[in-house]
Write a structure and sequence with these properties.
The complex is a heterotrimer of chains A (about 260), B (about 290) and C (about 350). The model of chain A has no long low-confidence stretch (mean pLDDT about 90). Chain A has 12 helices and no strands. Chain A has one domain (about 55-255): Orthogonal Bundle (MetI-like fold). By secondary structure, chain A is an all-alpha fold. In chain B, helix 3 packs across helix 7 (about 160-185). The model of chain B is unreliable at about 1-10 (pLDDT under 50). With about 290 residues, chain B is mostly helical. Chain B has 12 helices and no strands. Chain C has about 350 residues and is α+β, with helices and mostly antiparallel strands. The model of chain C has no long low-confidence stretch (mean pLDDT about 90). Chain C has helices at about 45-55, 95-105, 110-125, 140-150, 170-185, 200-205, 220-225, 230-235; strands at about 5-15, 25-30, 35-40, 60-65, 70, 80-85, 160, 190-195, 205-210, 215-220, 240-250, 255, 260-265, 275-280, 285, 290-305, 305-315, 315-325, 335-340, 345-350. Chain C contains 8 helices and 20 strands. Classes of the chains: A mainly alpha (about 260), B mainly alpha (about 290), C alpha+beta (about 350). Chains in contact: A-B, A-C, B-C. At the A-B interface, helix 1, helix 3, helix 4, helix 5 and helix 6 of A face helix 1, helix 3, helix 4, helix 5 and helix 7 of B.
């Protein structure tokens, strides 16, 4: 196979991989009220509509809030767990490790049914607490991974140097350890935010009206209509993703984080 | 907080207290979001009461329903065939990209790698919508065909299994690429050079060196895509237009529409069993491959 | 004991699961302002001692006193010590000045006093102009200086140095060696440093403790250690030596296997077996006679001022370091005679036959 042909094939595959995103961006600028391709004329009409749509705006706000809460909680929990796993040898360590990875090993839809069954009797369905808890389970594995990686690369001698020169254990953590693991911390938090922000499967089981998120609103909308408003909305979601992707890539490298 | 020269912390009293502080919040969170749900799920699947996991007595009727109803057999078959088709095509299409990224020495390699795995971080709902735009009756492909006068009526590309398959292939490809990139560590360009210098043609180098060495990565990618495909429901539901019935869509239907939670739980357990057996088979295969 | 600034008594460290202790009943004391070197092969426990003094490892048993105060239960951050780590362990996310200021900050020194102190410490190690640099931008030697400044700015009771020169290349090592010594004597800080390099230990320390397998084999001034090693291990570890064992045939004379009689200046009972040693530089070229050995030159290494040669005598090798200004130098294959004065023969040990 010649080199050009090979590169052409790769280009085609990339086109396939990125096609839905590209198409969504193009359609979002279409002037018409219904879904069609290619656009006849371009405008920001769909965007204007999205910004006027109270349902979407408030869902966006809720998604951001839920995402921030999930990101923050996942980082705190992830940091504590990583400190335990990296810095201590204790009985049951393997068990803890397994428990952290286990949500990776169970399909989200199965997890969703289980979480729904747990939350229902506690009256937590369609509540902020419920959805944040649900998202925590699937995001903590990511924060543990990125923070553990950062923590393992911290030179223990540097922390010892701080101790010897007068830092209390807490000062060592705040002044030395924390700044050194910050990239992993932020990357993990940002990924956790994005997973929560984009998550539809589990959310659809947990939320209905009160705390519907942007993805669940889009899903519900798509079950009846596919007009370009959704495209404009999708572009906003994609923009959030791009910001996150760039941030993670700059902080610790995308491949190491996923 | 002493004892750093030894690789492990020695368990003194204050250390144990510290460890507890570190572990408890995380374990509580994982307990409520993973361990409890799994137990509740198992219990609910035997429950006689339709909306609660622990109300009512114990019954096998939901498993009976799930395992004897021909409809659910068909759903299970649909799920398996969707999983097989999607993972086959996702692997075929991901392999060249992963191979390209592994062997590339271009300075764009980092950007191209990010571009290949970044779709993972865009919402599956958004990308499914993208495929609705591409494959819809007035979508990219049909309007192109019509403007070229190749067809007059739109070709049915969505609201069916075909649409669901195409969309799932694309949506799950980044997972396959990621798994392959991780698994291609043994692909050393020097091996290829050595083989070429020993007189192997490019094609033979591929068959004899590259493919066997990349097989574990391919297998991992295929497994990952398969297990994600059989548990998907957003994409099959939206791309299938309500005409594609797989375990995922049925679990969702029972849980949120019909509100038959025990049946939803029983179907989830069936799905989980399918999922686990595939992983076990994969591990056997991988062990044989490495032996 | 009060005249000693640092006293270590019967210090023991046994790691859980280990059959033998890593540090085995180590005791020493050092007066204020003195520099002690802990010297030994890797794994001899020298770093473990240093880390126990710093408080980074808890001793299994034993006492550590600083200024007459027992400190083995004092937490690390309250011991008021400075430490220079092997790979410097600078805080990578801080500037040079930030690193140096850290200890002062932890001690609650107000900002206004910190600045001048940091500047003085940096000037002392000739980094006065680099305070704003990130430590990752420093060369190896500069990092070393920064680490020294960081550990001295807090005016520690005791300065600990863990293999401080091992990460530097040879030329820089000599330079830093003199500089550390100079800074230490100028500030008058009491210091303990760990090294496996005998040259370093001999040239820097006021006294050195030679260690092996968790124990101190000998402690003394460089001169005592070099000229009067307590045993074969110390003699072999510090400097080169020709080890000669034999039987005492008359007071002050032993019959060395394969060589013949050798006179030495130490009391040993007739009939016992003795272990003797001759440092290579104690041999002189001479005419055949008593206390002299004649053999063929087997190898020659010319090292500027010194010529190291090895001769074979009766199947044994003897090495000698000769000054190159000593007239005509032998060539390979020549037959030469090496002589040693009885007073220059080191007596190591005696055992009943």
């Amino acid at each position: 196979m010649s080199r050009t042909l090979w590169h052409f094939l790769i280009a085609l595959l990339y086109l396939f991989l990125l096609a839905p995103i590209l198409v969504v961006v193009i359609v979002s600028f279409d002037t018409r009220q219904y879904l069609a391709f290619p656009p006849e004329s371009l405008s920001f009409g769909s965007y204007a509509k999205v910004f006027a749509n109270q349902t979407f705006i408030s869902a966006f706000g809720r998604s951001v809030m839920i995402g921030l809460a999930v990101g923050l909680a996942a980082v705190v929990i992830g940091t504590l767990l990583s400190m335990a796993l990296v810095r201590y040898r204790f009985r049951g360590r393997e068990g803890v490790n397994f428990l952290i990875l286990a949500p990776f090993l169970v399909p989200h839809i199965v997890l969703a049914v289980g979480i729904m069954l747990v939350l229902a009797p506690m009256q937590l369905l369609d509540s902020y607490t419920g959805i944040i808890l649900a998202h925590l389970g699937i995001t903590v594995p990511y924060t543990v991974r990125t923070i553990t990686m950062s923590l393992m690369s911290v030179d223990r001698r540097v922390e010892e140097a701080a101790m010897v020169h007068g830092a209390t254990p807490f000062a060592v953590f705040r002044r030395i350890t924390l700044p050194l693991i910050a990239p992993g911390l932020i990357a993990g938090g940002v990924i956790a935010f994005l997973i929560s922000f984009d998550e539809a499967t589990i959310s659809l089981f947990i939320v209905s009206v009160k705390v519907s998120t942007l993805p669940t609103e889009i899903y519900n909308y798509l079950e009846v209509s596919t007009d370009p408003q959704i495209a404009a909305l999708s572009v906003l979601l994609i923009a959030v993703s791009i910001v996150v992707v760039i941030a993670v890539e700059k902080l610790i490298g995308l491949r190491r984080a996923l | 907080m002493s004892g750093a020269a030894a690789p492990a912390q020695q368990m003194t009293g204050s250390n144990r207290y510290m460890l507890l502080i570190l572990l408890v919040p995380g374990l509580l969170a994982l307990m409520t979001t993973f361990l409890l749900p799994m137990v509740w799920l198992a219990r609910a699947s035997f429950s006689t009461s339709s909306m609660s996991a622990f109300g009512g007595g114990v019954t096998l009727e939901h498993y009976h329903a799930a395992l004897t109803d021909p409809f659910y057999w068909k759903v299970a078959m649909n799920t398996l065939s969707l999983g097989v088709t999607v993972s086959f095509f996702a692997v075929i299409l991901s392999y060249p990209i992963a191979l390209f990224l592994t062997r590339s020495t271009s300075r764009w390699r980092g950007v191209l790698t990010a571009l290949a795995v970044a779709p993972l971080l865009t919402s599956a709902v958004v990308r499914t919508y993208g495929w609705m735009v591409i494959l819809g009756d007035r979508g990219v492909i049909n309007s192109t065909l019509q403007s070229l006068s190749l067809t007059t009526d739109p070709v049915r590309l969505s609201n069916n299994t075909f649409g669901a398959t195409v969309a799932l292939v694309e949506i799950l490809m980044p997972y396959a690429i990621l798994a392959m990139l991780a698994g291609f560590g043994r692909l050393n360009p020097q091996l290829e050079e050595a083989a070429s210098m020993l007189g192997a043609s490019k094609l033979r180098v591929f068959w004899r060196i590259i493919l066997p060495l990349s097989l574990p990565g391919i297998l991992t990618g295929a497994l990952l895509v398969f297990v994600l495909a059989i548990s998907a429901f957003v994409t099959p539901r939206l791309m299938g237009g309500g005409r594609v019935f797989v375990l995922g869509t049925e679990v969702f239907q029972e849980a949120t529409v019909t509100l038959n939670w025990p049946l939803a739980a029983a179907l989830s357990v069936v799905l989980l069993a399918l999922f686990s057996s595939v992983i076990v088979i994969y591990q056997r295969a991988l062990r044989r491959l490495e032996a | 004991m009060s005249e000693h600034h640092v006293v270590v008594e019967n210090l023991v460290k046994t790691y859980p699961g280990a059959a033998t202790p890593s540090v085995d009943h180590v005791s020493f004391a050092l007066p204020k302002g003195e520099m002690l070197a802990l010297l030994g092969p890797s794994g001899c426990g020298k770093t473990t001692i240093l880390r126990m003094i710093a408080g980074l490892i808890e001793p299994t048993s034993g006492a550590i006193q600083l200024n007459g105060r027992e400190i083995s239960q004092t937490p690390v951050h309250k011991r008021n010590m400075g430490m220079v780590f092997q790979a410097y362990a600078l805080f990578p996310h801080m500037t040079v000045a930030g690193n140096v200021a850290f200890g002062l900050e932890m001690r609650g020194v107000p900002n206004s006093e910190r600045g001048p102190k940091v500047q003085r410490a940096l000037d002392m190690v000739k980094l006065g102009h680099l305070g704003d640099r990130r430590v990752t931008q420093l060369s190896g030697g500069q990092q070393q200086r920064c680490a020294i400044a960081r550990s001295l700015v807090i005016e520690p009771e005791l300065l600990l140095l863990d293999e401080p020169l091992s990460n530097l290349d040879a030329k820089l090592r000599d330079e830093m060696r003199d500089e550390i010594r100079e800074i230490q004597s100028r500030t008058g800080v009491t210091a303990i440093f760990v090294t496996h390099d005998q040259d370093e230990a001999l040239s820097m320390a006021d006294r050195l403790a030679v260690m092996s397998a968790g124990r101190i084999e000998q402690i003394g001034t460089p001169r005592e250690i070099f000229d009067a090693p307590a045993n074969e291990f110390v003699a072999g570890f510090i400097g080169a030596g020709n080890f000669l064992s034999g039987r005492v045939t008359a007071p002050g004379q032993a019959e060395i296997e394969g060589l013949g009689p050798l006179r030495f200046a130490a009391p040993a009972s007739v009939g016992s077996r003795v272990q003797l040693m001759v440092r290579p530089h104690r041999f002189k070229l001479a005419a055949p006679g008593p206390n002299a050995f004649t053999g063929q030159v087997e190898s020659l290494v010319y090292r500027g001022q010194i010529l190291t040669l090895a001769i074979t005598v009766g199947g044994r090798r003897l090495t000698a370091d000769l000054h190159t200004h000593a007239g005509t130098l032998p060539a390979k294959g020549d037959t030469v005679t090496l002589a040693v004065a009885p007073g220059d023969v080191t007596f190591l040990s005696e055992a009943a036959a």
